[in-house]
Structure formats: C-alpha cells, structure tokens
Specification:
This protein folds into 4 domains: 122 residues, Calcium-transporting ATPase, cytoplasmic transduction domain A (Distorted Sandwich); 353 residues, Calcium-transporting ATPase, transmembrane domain; 159 residues, 3-Layer(aba) Sandwich (Rossmann fold), CATH 3.40.50; 158 residues, Calcium-transporting ATPase, cytoplasmic domain N (3-Layer(aba) Sandwich). By secondary structure, it is an alpha+beta fold. It has an 8-stranded mixed sheet with strand order 8-22-21-20-9-17-19-18, sandwiched between helices. The chain has 30 helices and 22 strands. It is elongated and about 115 Å long. A hairpin with a 2-residue loop joins strand 1 and strand 2. 51% of the residues lie in helices and 15% in strands. The N terminus and C terminus are likely disordered.
C-alpha cells in the first residue's frame, strides 16, 4: 500500500475539543460588522417615510378639530403601518444576514490530525491551516512549511508586488497576515492571532463592510418615485387651494390634501425593490446559488450566452481511475492484479499527486494506489512545481528514504509531458493517438513521467528550479472517468429553449471536449476550436470563429477573457463560470461572473457576482430561471402599484369635482395600504414563474422596468377600476341613498377592485386557473380583505368607525362584483395580456 505524507509530524494541529475551548475563550475569528441594521436603525428608517409623516399630520389635525376618535384610530393605524413595514424590513435584513453568513470565507485546517474545511470564523490560535494559490489568508499565522509562497499584501501595505515568504528567512518572512491573498505556491501555517487581534483588525481600515452602490433598477425606481412625489406635491397644493376657494375651511382642506398625497405617493416602490431583491437572493441561496452582488439578479434575465467549463460543472467531479496505458497495452482498472509496468505507472502518478489535496484527480489516483499497490512508500516533499499556462504539468520532488538522490514525479497534458521526455517522433505519434482515442470516449487523459535527480546522500540534493531540461522518463497514460451529471442534458436544453447559447470552455483534450459536449447536447455544430487558435486570430476572425463554434478545448484563462470580451463586442450579455486565480479577470469582465463554491479559489469567488455552492451547471440554469422570475415579479408589482393608485387618487378627487362630501379620508387610505403593501411585497414576490418563462427570449439589457407602453397599460387598468367605482358611487347617490351609504359601497368596490388588480397582474392571469395557482399568500390577503370590508360595510360599529352606515348584502355583493367583472371584460377584449405586454416591451 502506498502512503505518501508530504507533511512532517509537527503539523498535526489541534484536537476538535481544544479548538472548541479556545473558540469559547477568544471568540470568533471575525472583524466587527458595522453595516448590519438593528431594530433602532430600522425603526428610524420607517419613521422617515412620507406616509408616516402624513398620517401623523392628519392625526394632529383631527386632535385640533376635536375629533378624538378619528385621531386615536389614525394613531392605531400608524402603529399598524409601522409594524408591517418593520416586519418587511426585518425579513429583508434577515435574508441579507443569511447571505452574509453563507458568503463568509472558509479555511482548510488540520484538526485531530486530518485536513478539513471549516468556516474561517471558527479558527483559533494554534490551529494549523493550509493555504494555497488563490486563497485569502484567514488569520495571522506563522509558517511551518512553505513551497514557493508569494502573497499579495497590498490590502495592508499598499505594495502591489507579491511578497515571497518562507520558513528559512527572517522572522517577518515567516509571518503571513489575515486578508492577504496567496498568488503563488502553498504553505502550512500556525495561527497566531484571530479577529480583531490580527494586523488588519488593529489597523481597522477595512473593518466596515461597504454597502453596494445602487443598481440600475434601484436608480430607475428612485427616479420614478421622485417624479410621482413631485406630481403629488403639486396636485396636493392645488387641491388645498381649490378646497379653500370653493368651500373654505383650512383644516378640512389640509385633510383633503393629505388624503390625496397619501393616495398618490407610491412609497411601495422602494419597499418592493428591497424585499424582492433581498428575498430573491435568499431564495436563490436556498437553491445553492449565492448572489454576492444585487445587479447580478437584474442581469440574469438578460443573459444571452452562458460560458461554462466542463469538470465539476457539467460533470460530477467524481473522478475514477478507469484505465492505464503502459507502452502499447491498455489496462482496465478491474479487480485483477497489476503487472510491474502498471504498478510503476500508478506509483509515479501517486508521487505526482497531493495525498491530502482537494483535487478529484489526485484523490482518485491515491485511492487506486492505496488499494492496488502492495509496497508502502514514505517520503519527504522537497518542492512542488505548480501548473503554469506555458507548462500544464504538476510535479513534486521527493526525498525517498530507501533510495539515493531525489525523485521528481510529474503528471499533466500528454503533449507537454511528452515534450519533457523528448520522445522520438514515432513514439510521440503513438502516444498522442492513444490519448486521442481515450479522450474520444470522454476520459480525462493525463501522462506520467519520472526523473532521478543526483546520487548519493539525498539530504544534499537540491531540486531543479524548473522542469525543463530535467531527464524525465516516460511511464504511460492515465484515463480518468468523470461522468456527465444526469441533469445536465435537460438543463442545457432548457437554457437553449430560453434563447441562451451555451459555450463550453475546457482545458481538456479536444476529443474529450467533443464527446462531453455531444453527450450534454451543447451544440448542433460539430466544430471544436483550440485555445491556440484564439491566440492567433485577430478580432474579426475571432468573431467569425465564435459564430460557428460552441466548444473550445485546451483553453487557458487568458483565452476565456478574450472570448468574453469578443462576445460582449458582439452585443451579447455573457455569464461565465470559473474557479481559478487566473479566471478572475474574465469573471470580473463578464456581465455575470459565476464562481465555483467548492473547488473555486477565494479570488475567483470574490471576483464573481454569483457563487455556486454545489459547482453544478444545473444551478446556473436555475439561477437564470430564478433571476427571470424575480425581475418579472418586480415588473408585475410595479405595474400593479401604478394601476392601484389611479382609482384611489380618482376617488379622492371625485367629490371635490362633484361638490359632494369627501369619500376617502386618511383612515381609508391606510386601510387600502394594508392591502397594497402585502399584495405588492408579499403576494407578488411569491408568485411562481409563468409556465413559458424559459421559452421566452432573454430580456433586452436596455429594457426599462416601466416604459411608456407599460405605464399606459397600467393606467388603463386603473382607470377601468376607477370608472366602475365612480359608477357605483354615482348610481347609489342617484338611487336616493345617503352619502355615507354611497361612500361605503364605493369603498367596498375600491377594495375589491384592488384585489382584482392583484389577480390581473399575477403570473397566471386566466380566471379559470387563477385561484388554483400556488400562492397561499394571495389567498390569505384576499380572505382577510374581503372579511374586513364585509364587516365594515355590514356591521354598525365598524361602519361607524370609518364614517359609513351599514348597507344591504345585495348592494354590497353588486358593488364588489362590478370591478371584478370590469377587469374580466378588459381581459377578454384586450388583445394582449399583462404577460404579453411584458414580452413585447422587454424585447421590442
């Protein structure tokens, strides 16, 4: 059995029990958070809302005129509005905090003698952590051993050049600090300080977490609210002046003006956007998709090209060693014993792999070496040679106790390893043909070679600085199977049906890429291009290549960046997956960068807008679907908010124009807001996607949330409800009913029209399917609103509170049914449903 331990016994680390004791003593390894809003901050934010200011002003006016009952009712309504708004803010803040906890960094630590990945907040002084290229150092630490370690310390020092650290240098050279970034090499280090006791904690320059800048959608909403507020203020002044000139009485005029202002200001817009984006991101995280930046949700619905890698995203990242090729013999990895040549190949492959690493290929190789090799081999790691763009080979130099000199084992791309071995042309041709044959079956192909360095006393041998020029001897090929995820073909088909082109970028052999792409159904075009072609082409030729090619093999990170930029120049909205340090530029350049949460490096995750917690391609497509759903629901809510304020505003103005007493008072508007707020921020936020959502083309990136056509359609919906409500009021007056009864019926009709507008703007607008759609929140809001309006219109006490007199059940049923019937007729005679309008507006 092979047992290769690259770590000396000094790095066994703490026990789990001791780590728990120290964590309890010292506290978590975390810097103070200053951006989490607590209850006092939430309450202050709520009390600044214009609606609350208007309600308080109306209560004061009622007290001045001696209407204590009305003042108390308005005060109670203020408490209800504050409670509802606080609840919505709390839900958003709780969702954001859950996302912060999911996004917190992790660390590889040795506990109880074994490596494990834990949240970085659980690190304690004395823990032994392992850092490698692409990791952010989780705590201040002292190096125990290192291999070619270079750290970007610009966060602390401002120095842009990476700093080399080693165990053998000065004391400062052996110290690494929390927050810095490993750009090359790897190391084991013992934690010396955590949390606020680290260097970055003492400096305190980066403790506060800055909030994201407003997204384009947020800026559009703010402009819309400001526009409405300006109109509301102007109309309010005009109404006050008109009331005083026609009827006199400043206090009554102010009440009329306040009521109209409350009716016209769409203060729900910011709440809707905050709640939808926060809860949408939280829901996506429950599906293993972590949104790090809110603009990503907006961009997801407009994605036209999805660039994805292969290993671990399309495949299961569950490598198994399926085949060995020694000389001209192919050996399937069954249960039979391996001959000497196959054992030597497997032994060299294990030497060129990290025994306790996280790479699935290394784990697969060591699993077979442990099971199939009889000899137990121990050694001391002298040097590691990481993969580079120019030489895709990984190598480790060993000091072997039973051999003279040192041993250098490497594995990597067959053509690169063959070049290191300087194979003669005929043998090279046979090797590449065998590799191509294995790749055509979808196997990941690696070549293995080995070199002896020096002779005599192994302690005096120094490994070479580079692999080039080392006399490597060829051992053979490995074929690793990484099966395609079962759900991938269906996810690819869904993406393509949604108008999203899928492009595969992989570092694998061209035949492996072709086989996996065919199995996944990525493209109808058989062409596969190599990364080397991308280097040679100018921009126009690259445009032509992208037009006919969906699969790229032997691609390096710089190729990904150029492809992303070329697609963007073509007007595409690009989402791209990545996991390595060198993927960061392409992830940052893409409209939606998607990093791998399991195998991705810290720098890749920080450069990306989205992190896949399960590294699964299906999650990328699911994210696109959920992003489209969130944006569509925000759009529905915006249309509903505009529509619902039309009849409220109209009913507030109508009595002034007719010379009759006011129908709507501040208390009535508050009651309506108790329906509008949950309808817009809870009901429509929970609306499931439309059945054809992933059969529509992507939304244009330049499409506005509310354009002129959408605004006009919302006005028409609101005017229909206003017309019915006004008709109910006028007919009741004409029938000789008292004003208080006519006002009660108009108010009931307005409430039911409000519910009808909710129904009209849901994802499934057809009346026959509406009540059966999955949205329990709508049923709860509708039932509560109908019960409340029935009590207000039919029972003496509630009617008196609202300034009404009870009406008959027959009149109430007619008043409630008419606005629903009007909206149904609008639906029947309209040539386009709200969803159809959405499609036309979004893609015209």
């Amino acid at each position: 059995m092979a047992s290769i331990d690259p770590h000396p016994p000094a790095t066994t680390g703490l026990s789990a029990a001791e780590a728990a004791r120290r964590l309890s003593r010292d506290g978590p390894n975390a810097l103070p958070q200053r951006d989490r809003r607590r209850w006092p901050q939430l309450l202050i934010g709520v009390l600044r809302e214009p609606m609350l200011v208007l309600l308080i002003a109306a209560s004061a006016i009622y007290l001045i005129v001696g209407e204590l009952r009305d003042a108390m009712m308005l005060a109670a309504s203020v408490l209800m509005v504050v409670a509802l708004t606080l609840y919505q803010e709390w839900r958003s803040e709780r969702a954001l905090q859950a996302l912060r906890e999911l996004a917190s960094p992790s660390a590889v630590v040795r506990r109880d003698g074994a490596l494990q990945r834990v949240p970085a907040t659980s690190l304690v002084v004395g823990d032994v952590v392992r850092v490698a290229e692409g990791d952010r150092v989780p705590a201040d630490a002292r190096l125990l051993e290192s291999s070619d370690l270079h750290v970007d310390e610009s966060l602390l020092t401002g120095e842009s050049a990476p700093v080399a650290h080693s165990v053998d240098g000065e004391v400062s050279d052996a110290a690494i600090h929390a927050g810095t970034l490993v750009v090359r090499g790897q190391a084991n280090a013992e934690v010396t300080a955590t949390g606020g006791r680290t260097e970055i904690g003492r400096i305190g320059a980066s403790i506060a977490t800055l909030r994201d800048q407003p997204t384009p959608l947020q800026r559009e909403i703010r402009r819309l609210v400001a526009w409405f507020a300006a109109i509301s203020f102007a109309v309010c002044l005009a109404v006050v002046a008109l009331y005083v000139s026609l009827r006199g009485g400043w206090l009554d005029a102010l009440l009329a003006g306040i009521t109209l202002a409350m009716a016209t200001i769409p203060e729900e817009f910011p709440v809707v956007l905050t709640v939808f984006l926060a809860l949408g991101a939280w829901r996506m995280a429950r599906h293993r998709v972590l949104v790090r930046r809110p603009p990503a949700i907006e961009a997801l619905g407009a994605v036209t090209v999805l660039c994805t890698d292969k290993t671990g995203t399309l495949t299961e990242n569950r490598m198994t060693l399926a085949r060995l090729v020694v000389a001209d013999r192919a050996i399937a990895m069954g249960n039979e014993a391996l001959d000497a040549g196959a054992q030597a190949l497997l032994h060299s492959a294990a030497l060129a792999s990290d025994a306790d690493g996280h790479d699935p290929m290394d784990r697969a190789i060591h699993a077979q070496a442990t099971a199939r090799l009889a000899a137990r081999v121990s050694g001391i790691c002298l040097k590691r040679y990481p993969v580079t763009p120019s030489l895709p080979v990984y190598a480790i130099a060993w000091r072997m106790p039973d051999r003279d000199g040192a041993l250098l084992a490497c594995k990597g791309a067959p053509e690169s390893v063959a070049a290191l071995c300087a194979l003669p042309p005929e043998e090279l041709r046979d090797v590449l043909a065998a590799a191509a044959s294995m790749a055509a079956e979808g196997l990941r192909v690696l070549a293995v070679a080995e070199a002896r360095i020096g002779a005599g006393d192994a302690t005096t041998v120094r490994p070479p600085e580079t692999l080039q020029g080392t006399p490597f001897a060829w051992h053979g090929l490995l074929g690793l199977a990484d099966p395609l995820r079962d759900e991938v073909p269906a996810a690819v088909a869904e993406a393509r049906s949604a108008g999203v082109r899928v492009v595969m970028l992989t570092g694998d052999h061209i035949e492996t890429a072709r086989a996996i792409a065919a199995a996944a159904g990525i493209s109808d075009r058989p062409d596969v291009a190599l990364g080397s072609e991308i280097e040679r082409l100018h921009d126009d030729a690259l445009h032509d290549l992208l037009a006919r090619t969906d699969v790229f093999a032997r691609v390096r990170p710089e190729h990904k960046l150029r492809l992303v930029q070329a697609l963007q120049r073509n007007g595409e909205v690009v989402a791209m997956t990545g996991d390595g340090v060198n993927d960061a530029p392409a992830l940052a350049a893409a409209h939606v960068g998607v990093a791998m949460g399991k195998r991705g490096t810290d720098v890749a995750r920080e450069s990306a807008a989205i992190v896949l917690l399960d590294d699964d391609f299906v999650s990328v497509v699911r994210a696109i679907r959920m992003g489209r759903t969130i944006y569509a629901n925000i759009r529905r809510a915006a249309r509903y908010i505009i529509a619902v304020h039309v009849p409220i505003t109209g009913l507030a103005l109508l009595p002034l124009l007719l010379g009759t007493p006011l129908v709507l008072l501040p208390l009535h508007v508050v009651f309506l807001e108790m329906i509008i707020d949950p309808a817009s921020s809870i009901v429509l936020e929970r609306e499931p996607p439309a059945p054809d959502l992933m059969r529509r083309p992507p939304r244009l990136a330049t499409a506005r949330l509310i354009d002129l056509r959408t605004f006009a359609a919302s006005l028409v919906h609101g005017l229909v409800v206003l017309g019915v409500v006004a008709a109910v009021y006028l007919v009741t007056i004409a029938a000789g009913r008292v004003h208080a009864e006519a006002a009660a019926l108009a108010f009931a009709s307005l409430v039911c029209g409000n519910l009808g507008l909710v129904m009209l703007h849901r994802a499934r607008p057809l009346p026959g399917r509406l009540l059966h759609a999955r949205n329990a929140a709508f049923r709860i809001v509708a039932a509560a609103a109908l019960a409340a309006i029935a009590a207000i219109a039919l029972l003496p006490a509630p009617a008196h509170w609202f300034g009404f007199v009870p009406v008959t059940a027959t009149w109430l049923a007619a008043a409630a049914a008419l606005p629903l019937a009007g909206l149904a007729l609008l639906k029947v005679f309209s040539r386009k449903s709200p969803d159809a309008v959405e499609r036309v507006d979004a893609h015209s």
